[in-house]
Amino acid sequence: MSDYTLNYEAAKDEKLPSVSLDLNESITTAIYSDTDLQAELIEAILREGKMSVFDRQEGLYDRLTVADNTKFFHKWFGCSMTFPEILVMFGLQTCADKPLSKCTPSELARVYYAKYFMMDHYPVVFHEPIQGVDLHTMNTFMNMLQKLKENKTPVLILVSNLEHALLLSDLTYKLKENGLQEIEVAQEQLSETTTETEQNSATLTTSKLYKVPAKVEDKIILFDPTEIDYIESQDGKAQIVVNHESFSLDSTLAEIEKKIEPYGFYRCHRSYIVNLQKVREIITWSKNTYSLRIDNKPKSTIPLSRTKIQHIQDTFDLK
Amino acid sequence: MNTQRIGAIFEKDLKEFRKNMMLLMMPVIPIFLAFMYSRMGEGELPIFLLYLIVGATYSAVTTSGMMTMMAEENEKKTLRGLIQSPASLADILIGKSLVVGLFTLVSLIISLAILGNDTFLAVQPIIGLILLFLFFLLLGIGIGLFTKSVANTSAYIMPVMFLFGFTPMIEFLNLGEDSIAIKIADYFPIMQMIDMHETNSWTAIGIVAIWVIAAAIFTFICLKKVSTDN
């Protein structure tokens, strides 16, 4: 097993804490943090000079077509896969003859992925890889991660969006000023939550008039359950998300879950409760993972645990 | 050196050159000049006019083409991740030189054909022209490594064009025969070529070769500086 270790000592005048992390080649690792800490982490990685960070910030050849760009990188990096294979793998065959200046951001993102894949670095660090791309492109990226895993390349993904981190990685860490924390995922919690749900059915009649209280500065805002898109867990506290805004609650996710379940909410992931009324799409990614797309303005996608898909399918009478 | 990489960059830049109006207009300039001169004078054209066209071709196509291509890569940061070692930088420079060389050759042959002069079809002038090409190419590479944007290139190309490309024009400035400027200008590569053409002397070729070596040293220093900067 040839793991790669990431190791940074905390510098005096910086916020970045000491980071020590094993990158396993068979597990995709993600670090989720706010953008400031992320920038400092990237700086630390670049300063060491052993790894380059793929952030889609460098230019491509705008005048040339997708095929010309890809062909150039294919030849330059001496890729062992054939050129048509690469085109198909990154879904570029349909836009192959388009000049890059006319491509959509998602198509451009796929050209970048193809370039990064052919660069064949060890290990690979991605920075916000699926920010602002469409579903097809996200799927392409996840297929590439799968391929990198087969090639035994350790992958690290840096994101500032928890949903992306949970979707892409097998192991998610949260980077805060006091250090790295692992975010545990599903499974072990499952039995606990199912017992909770059984109890909840009893309280159904009593909670007819329930509003969710959120504190904003000095005021307490009462939310109608139907206007809530979903509730996520942030540092042990629940947070309501309504369109672009989020409001913190005083209670934990488990506490709020009990109260809100009768209104058509469901704990679809350890850190998420979703308003089932607002689910527009159930996305099935190729590697047997799932996401729920919410029918709100930013069209949020939130993770759906593998163990909970059955319940969702039953709820919506799907097979 | 890696022929596969040189091939890749050659192919890529050849396609880019054809789609870039700014680069594509450059080889047209000397052809247009040649066309005008051939209409202007009756009979044989003076030698210095021929070399003016050669100077225009080399400075407008070779030097400026090389500079523009490098500037574009620097400006858009397209080379990030492609250059892992000084060897891959060399591959890029060689690949681009081949593209520039190809377009220079085409432009030069067409403009000289328009002028209808075959005095260049001899061993000595051809050696001279090759040396001149190398001189202008090395100059373009050296400056190109440092140009951060395409807009900058037009500022940098001016001195090169007037000093080295259009040196024969200095005679029109009506400076006296003994003027120090003329004496210095006489040692510039294009002037030495004119001298060689008239006297068939090999020393003129030697002086051009010294210019090439000087340009090579300049380029080498630039390369060293760029690779230590990163």
What is the topology?
The complex is a heterodimer of chains A (319) and B (230).
Chain A: E1 4-8, E2 19-23, E3 28-32, H1 35-48, E4 53-54, H2 66-76, H3 83-89, H4 105-119, E5 124-127, H5 135-150, E6 155-159, H6 162-168, E7 171-176, E8 179-183, H7 190-200, E9 212-216, E10 219-223, E11 230-234, E12 237-242, E13 245-248, H8 253-260, E14 265-269, E15 272-275, E16 279-284, E17 290-294, E18 301-304, H9 309-315
Parallel strand pairs in A: 3-6, 3-7, 4-5, 5-6
Antiparallel strand pairs in A: 1-2, 7-8, 9-10, 11-12, 11-15, 12-13, 14-15, 16-17, 17-18
Helix pairs in contact in A: 2-4, 4-5
Chain B: H1 3-19, H2 21-25, H3 28-40, H4 47-76, H5 86-115, H6 123-144, H7 150-165, H8 180-185, H9 189-199, H10 202-229
Short description:
The complex is a heterodimer of chains A (319) and B (230). Chain A is an alpha+beta fold and 319 residues long.
What does it look like?
The complex is a heterodimer of chains A (319) and B (230). With 319 residues, chain A is of the alpha+beta class. Chain A has helices spanning 35-48, 66-76, 83-89, 105-119, 135-150, 162-168, 190-200, 253-260, 309-315, and strands at residues 4-8, 19-23, 28-32, 53-54, 124-127, 155-159, 171-176, 179-183, 212-216, 219-223, 230-234, 237-242, 245-248, 265-269, 272-275, 279-284, 290-294, 301-304. Chain A folds into two domains: 4-183, Rossmann fold, CATH 3.40.50; 187-315, OB fold (Dihydrolipoamide Acetyltransferase, E2P). A six-stranded mixed β-sheet of chain A has the order 4-5-6-3-7-8, with helices on both faces. In chain A, strands 13-12-11-15-14 form a five-stranded antiparallel β-sheet, with helices on one face. Chain A is globular and about 65 Å long. Chain B has one domain (3-229). Chain B is an all-alpha fold and 230 residues long. In chain B, helix 4 packs antiparallel against helix 7 (150-165) and helix 4 runs antiparallel to helix 9. Helix content of chain B is 77%, strand content 0%. The radius of gyration of chain B is 18 Å and the shape is globular. The interface between A and B is medium-sized, with 17 and 18 residues. Chain A: This is LytTR family transcriptional regulator DNA-binding domain-containing protein.
